[in-house]
Write a structure and sequence with these properties.
Largest sheet: 5 strands, mixed, barrel
Helix content: 40-55%
Structural class: alpha+beta
Radius of gyration: 29 Å
Strand order of the largest sheet: 3-4-7-6-5
Order of helices and strands: HEEEEEEEEHEEHEEHEEEEEHEHHHHH
Low-confidence stretches: none
Number of helices: 10
Strand content: 25-35%
Shape: elongated
Length: about 425
């Protein structure tokens, strides 16, 4: 239960940062944001502040920022509907489809003859004597369908579709961008706390391990794998994963000599290992603030390359879909990291944030990357894609993602509890 709670808190924090990016840049572009939600499914908490409903929903596996005009606007007043309305400064600011509670302001009443809630912003009402009255709507007028269902109108200039392609692209791109920026910040903090890892001095070689059989000894300093420099555990770990168990050339410095050994890594779970342990006190040194910031960017870049490379291998079939991890595996890893201390928890949070940012940039329907593709096509064609067709593409993509989620969750449960 502790692991579950930690994972939900970490994931909710990452989702909040992601959605905050969308929210801030949407507001900056003048888009009406109807809801800022953490989670999916039924609403368990909601509070309206300003123009936006801030909510927490039952399934803590994501979130969303609902911008006016992203989907077809559902705010409407049907002809013949009896409405009651209050007005301020000669503009209707609240329109009720039921008899409202007692008001300090004067209330006008009539049946809707016609209404324009997006362009001209007016309502034409017919009173009891059959006379028609033209009323101007306030740009932030609220439509009260019932006591619980209250919706603000969205004039065209406040809708997502009315903005420039640059403004729309930035509102969508900002979500993944904020996750990537958070990764840089977390790696910077981690470096300030733990120092810079830039040496791999061997403390012990496990008996009968690949490293022992190859001739690597305690006191050696590992510097490269297959000619590529390795200066920390992450680089070494990824180089061994890339080998897939084939022999690699491990370069070490022994005293003043440089030696190269052929080593065949052994598979252990999803990792490949050669059987060495390192002198942790000698692997790191204290980092200055400038070095920590540099390390934050460097680690983010290195891990981005690793993640993109892994995704490429997944697409080309070089990596099995069995290696994918879902919420159960992420929760298991996050919980174990939390039990190990604050530094491992910060590292896994940074990696989850980076994965979330990169994954959302993939051109998969229903993800931010796909929406950016549609915005790019709109810029090339100089006219928007049919919203109905785009919505259908995203709907199908979301359904496929849910199927993938079910598969990886089953895979996680099998690996964690039954392997």
């Amino acid at each position: 239960m502790q692991q579950v709670i930690v994972f939900i808190l970490v994931l909710s924090f990452l989702v909040f940062i992601h959605e905050l990016g969308h929210f801030l840049f949407a507001k900056r572009a003048g888009i009406l944001v109807r809801e800022f939600a953490i989670g999916f499914g039924p609403k368990i908490f909601g509070k309206i502040h300003g123009e936006t409903m801030y909510s927490i929903r039952a399934l803590p596996l994501g979130g969303f920022v609902r911008m006016a005009g992203e989907d077809a606007e559902l705010v409407e007043l049907k002809t013949g509907t009896l409405v009651y309305a209050t007005q301020t400064a000669d503009k209707l600011d609240h329109v009720y489809l039921y008899e409202p509670p007692q008001q300090d302001q004067a209330v006008v009443m009539g049946r809707v003859v016609e209404a324009d809630l997006e362009k001209e912003l007016y309502i034409l009402l017919e009173d009891q004597d059959g006379r028609e009255h033209h009323y101007t709507l306030h740009p932030q007028a609220m439509i009260h369908y019932d006591q619980k269902n209250v919706v603000q109108i969205a004039p065209l200039d406040r809708q997502f579709g009315s903005k420039t392609t640059g403004q729309k692209a930035m509102a969508i791109f900002a979500g993944p961008l904020f996750n990537i920026v958070l990764t840089v910040i977390l790696f910077t903090v981690l470096t300030l706390m733990s120092g810079i890892e830039d040496r791999l001095p061997v403390d012990e070689v496990v008996a009968n391990s690949p490293a022992a059989k190859a001739g690597i000894q305690a006191g050696d300093l590992i510097t490269a794998v297959d000619g590529k420099e390795v200066r920390n555990m992450d680089q070494l770990r990824y180089a061994l994963i890339e080998s897939k168990g084939r022999e690699v050339k491990v370069t070490v410095k022994r005293g003043e000599q440089v030696k190269e050994f052929g080593v065949t890594p052994q598979k252990n779970g999803e990792l490949y290992q050669i059987g060495v342990q390192f002198i942790h006190d000698e692997m790191r040194r204290e980092a200055s603030f400038g070095e920590a910031i540099g390390a934050g960017f460097t680690k983010t870049y290195d891990w981005t390359v690793m993640i993109v490379d892994s995704l490429g291998k997944l697409v080309t079939g070089q990596m099995s879909v069995e290696s994918l991890g879902g919420p159960v595996q992420m929760g298991n890893i996050t919980g174990k990291a939390a039990e190990s201390g604050i530094e491992p928890l910060i590292q896994i949070t940074a990696l989850l944030s980076l994965n979330l940012g990169i994954f959302n940039l993939l051109p998969i329907p229903a993800l931010d990357g796909s929406r950016l593709v549609f915005i790019g096509l709109e810029a090339i064609r100089r006219r928007p894609i049919d919203p109905t067709k785009e919505s259908m593409v995203h709907f199908v993509g979301f359904a496929l993602l849910m199927m993938l989620m079910i598969f990886v969750t089953y895979n996680d449960i099998r690996k964690i509890f039954f392997s």
